[in-house]
Amino acid sequence: MVNDIQKKNFIQTIKPKISKRSLFFVAAFFWTFAGGSLLYRGFSLLLTVEEYIWLRIILSTIGGILFYRFLFSKISLKHSVRILTLKIEKPCFFSFLNIRSYIIMMMMITSGIVLRKSGIIPPQYLSILYITMGIPLLVSSIRFYYYGIFYPSLIATYNL
User: Is the residue at 5 inside a domain?
Assistant: First the structure.
């Protein structure tokens, strides 16, 4: 019994804790990094085959906007509200995502690497996928920056 309490206390002392406001900036950084990385890789692949380049850019942009509008805007809002309403005042550094989102993120990263390394999808089409996914990630990061910057007024507005 005492051993379990000591383990819990030890884990609590080494757990990297930050303020909720800082957690928004951590989330913003990670989403910006992920979106920027996908856009960089997507545009790098896009330039390997110059045929129909503008069509692929337009398709990617439209796809990215649609993904943001119908999926990522809801996901980033859900995570923002979850961070705002956390009961702990200094949550863990890694709690900007929940467990389910970490699993989905790992699956997406793995899928992207497998698709790129295997050559199943030609680079010109893989570029569309990368850019389409990079746009909503990058745009969604803006919400986290916003919540981090305006955190004090958000807390006052929602009486949290």
Answer: no
